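To fix ideas, we reproduce below one chain and its tokenised fold.
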Amino acid sequence: MATFLYKLGRLAFRRRHFVALIWVALLTLAGVGAASAPPAGNSSFSIPGTEAQKAFDLLQQRFPGASADGATARVVFKAPGGEKMTDAGNKATVNKTVKELSHGSEVASVTAPYTGHAVSKDGTIAYASVKYKVSGMELEDSSRTALKDAAQDAREAGLTVEIGGDALSAAPGTGATEAIGIAVAAVVLVITFGSLLAAGLPLLTAVIGVGIGVSTVTALAHALDLGTTTSTLATMIGLAVGIDYALFIVSRYRAELAEGREREEAAGRAVGTAGSAVVFAGLTVVIALVGLSVVNIPMLTKMGIAAAGTVVVAVLIALTMIPALLGYAGHRVKPAGQKSRLLGGARAAKKPARPNMGTRWASFVVRRPVAVLLLGVIGLGAAAVPAASLELGLPDDGSQPVSTTQRRAYDLLSEGFGPGFNGPLMVVVDAKRSDDPKAAFTEVTDDIKGLKDVVTVTPAQPNKAGDTATVTVIPNSKPSSATTEDLVHAIRDAGSGIKAKTDAEVLVTGSTAMNIDVSQKLNDALFPYLALVVGLAFLLLIVVFRSVLVPLKAALGFLLSVMAALGAVVAVFQWGWLSGLMGVEETGPVMSMMPIFMVGVVFGLAMDYEVFLVTRMREAYVHGEKPGQAIVTGFRHGARVVTAAAIIMIAVFAGFIGSSESMIKMIGFGLAIAVFFDAFIVRMAVVPAVLALLGRRAWWLPKWLDRALPNVDVEGEGLRTGPGSGPKDLDEDRELVRV
């Protein structure tokens, strides 16, 4: 591995024009594809194997003209103070608005408040329901504009008008904090490298990599039904790992220059050593992201694969474009320990050398491993305590910012009709096998009326064949509450008894029931997914470190950091701690995808730091240093860079906390705090403390396993005894070009 990457690095350094041209061409091609592709919308949401999805599919089959997957909108009206929606003037305004809404070519139906019993008991609030022929993803902008214009006309007539539903769903915005994250990354890189040019290389390559990855996702978004959230996630992950991977290779290049090597040789060795770590770190991230497919939720699978593709691009760019750009930079990239003149390089050169912070910290940990280990574990354990109160759900309009019309419509409907009105349950009664379908429909409605937490049950609405009917149930509690979840389970339990009596099958669907089924499906998949991802990565790390205990320690440390991060997410988004600072306007259940998503992404990123830091320790150990000294050596060379990489990644993820989309906000915060816990507590404190306590046993590997494992040479041992020792390697590089 190291030998091949060494040759690749030297080749890219020499053939820099060719390498740069390839990446610019790929960026241009992806950009053209993204610009010419139809815009993405909200990804269609299907959950195979759940009751809610089964009922939804049945609706499409038995009610073919009902546009079961069509977008919906609720136009909510509120009368001015002292007036009612039934007043003649207000009624005329609403009827005019309904008439305007019905003109669109994509509109399937519009139900007026006065014909659909959609006026509140006090008469102050009413709503019109709009059903479209196409899904929210396929809805034309002209239809959304017509919807907004109709609402605006009613506002000008004196009514308060807001719009809810998925017809107005918009692409999430990230706000200015994303740019602040990039700015922080730039400052950290300048401080780390002491050079504006060296700092600019990781940023440039990361932007190019994300540009290629996200443009490709955008180009394929409409065809593959990827949705807007997919590209946001690809940007988040790709930018973070792209900067980090380039940072490690540039840092190693400067270290090789400081040892007196020629620039081409230094580039080859940097890619051969740090590049090997990049490859395996990238593999762990890809395994974790692609592994999301085992959950069998199409949207989550697409998000994981798209982000994994961006990570692959980041790895390839770090291995090829970074050495090419280093060739262009020439002597303007200084050896480690030197700064550019602009940043006071001449003054820094006069200062006497002294142990850096990483050396001093590692020496302290080696002397006090038990105290450091206990402090780190207890601290993370305390942060993880809120995770015991974790409640899962999916965001709805109630979690939107109060500045949005969707949130204001949600609040108006809650005020006028009760909190459960925003999450109606649709009960589908399949009476095809029943001898008396009408009796079955009546049995279902009567049984549901007798359940707790039910406010309203509409009469059964049968299809033309008379063998299937829908019943709408309005709960007494809001959609995301545990009480509503209990009601869904109660209806399903009652359905078992109804089936035994009438042979009619009762299924519960709707967005609320779908969210409940998603949460359950994710809960059921969490431990199998964790076992798969951690197991595969554990085997990979055994190959990398040629040790059993080091990968085991890495996995246990990850569990500590991810549980602490989940605890922080619960404290902020569910309990409301520091919610104002984070821009969380409505607390509630944690997004149901968050635990499994955090496990996947954070595990991959955590292994990045494990690989980068511990490979330097193993490199020192296999070259003859004692275990304790190898820990210090690893920190001397790697702690500064790992610290910079972690700060950059935290800054990039934290930038997404400013998103208007609650899911993106939560993911950004969760990943940022998880990287903080993992990098600065687990990898910087717990890991060296455990290695110091284990001593030589940390690097133990059974002889039979040692013989069976392939030697990937991540430490670059082959570069000391083989390549890199003289001009003969130029012939080997030319052979690589011919191959």
User: Anything to note?
Assistant: The two ends are 17 Å apart (CA to CA). Residues 511-545 form the longest helix (35 residues). Residues 346-350, 722-739 have pLDDT under 50 and may be disordered. The CA atoms of residues 289 and 304 lie 5 Å apart.
